[in-house]
Amino acid sequence: MDKLAITLGVEEEFFLVDAASRDLLVDPAKEIFAQCERNAGSHKVVHEFLRSQIETNSRVCDSVAEVRQALLETRALVADAASRHGARVVAASTHPFGRWDEQMHTAEDRYRRFAVIFQESVRRFIVAGMHVHAGFGDADDRIRVMTAMRRYLPLLHALSTSSPFSGGRMTGFKSYRLNLIGALPRTSLPGALDSRADYDRLLESYRQMDFVQDGSELWWDIRPSQQYPTVEMRICDVCSRIDEAMCMVALYACLARWLLRNKDSLPPEPPTEIIAENRWLAQRYGVFAILGSPLGKDRKDIGDIAQWLTGELAEDAAALECEAELNYVDEIIRNGSSADRQIDLYRLRRLEGDSEEEALAAVVDALIEETCEGLAA
Known about the structure:
With 377 residues, the protein is an alpha+beta fold. 46% of the residues lie in helices and 12% in strands. The protein has one domain: Creatine Kinase, Chain A, domain 2 (2-Layer Sandwich). It has helices spanning 30-39, 64-83, 109-118, 120-123, 139-149, 153-160, 177-181, 196-208, 242-261, 272-285, 302-312, 314-319, 323-335, 338-351, 356-371, and strands at 7-18, 44-47, 53-57, 87-90, 130-135, 165-166, 169-170, 222-224, 231-233, 290-292, 299-301. The strands form 3 sheets. Strands 1, 2, 3, 4, 5, 8 and 9 form a 7-stranded antiparallel β-sheet that branches. Strand 10 (290-292) and strand 11 (299-301) form a beta hairpin.
């Protein structure tokens, strides 16, 4: 058995928008979810906190190439169901102009409990994300790799940014999603953990104090999955284009394999506070960020960091047969993430005479198109 084998799975959260107004569908047709559930096959489609959202969970995949096919299938599944019922699907981590005070949460006990506990923090929670699961090694291996992965999370986040707008305003952040998530407890970076026993003790402390019911309520940027023998990377915004999503999958998978095969010679962990500083720079500036070097005491342009890292990961990309997906990092840095395209389009439409409302609607149109790129008609 290959000790460096990695299985992968992806969760993507989407917004459902009205086909005419491009606004969030506060209470979309139940038939959208019913159709998805009937046709999901080996995938899953589930409700999210807001009724205006829909989440896909891919099947377990044995390769990066399988993940691409899975995402083509899951996006086509929800796009078709939505279009049959007057809706469209948007892959972005905030809706450009949806109003939080008009939304309704899903009528499930878990979400009712969250609404009571977290109040205004969760009422403003119009956010979507992409979570990538990687299964490998044993339980201790996964914890050690999770800890070592933390310093690279800001880069992954910067490349995925897709939430520059909120409530009809340009926020000044490439990822405003993390600002909204940060209003909840047990978010952001986990501390450095050395073993599964360390994690289990921490989780048990949370449970003994009745802070959480289980590990699914630790909403860290990266965590051990509650349901599966995987490490779940949660920091990324949902990517508008499948090529961008696949780049995140490949980069994460290559990093996991690289760290796993070097697990006995990992460098000392940087302070969590320094990683957090890089995280903030990534959400503020995206691919224009100048981050603290993962291995040094200076700051480097994100392009230089990415070039060094993809070079280090070349062997792993070859082993996982995902060189093209990994090298797409250069494309994102050169041409910008979804957030950059959204901002550029909004500014262009305003210069051409569109009102703010018209310009924001044009951004939603572009996101709908990008979400469905490459899907079968």
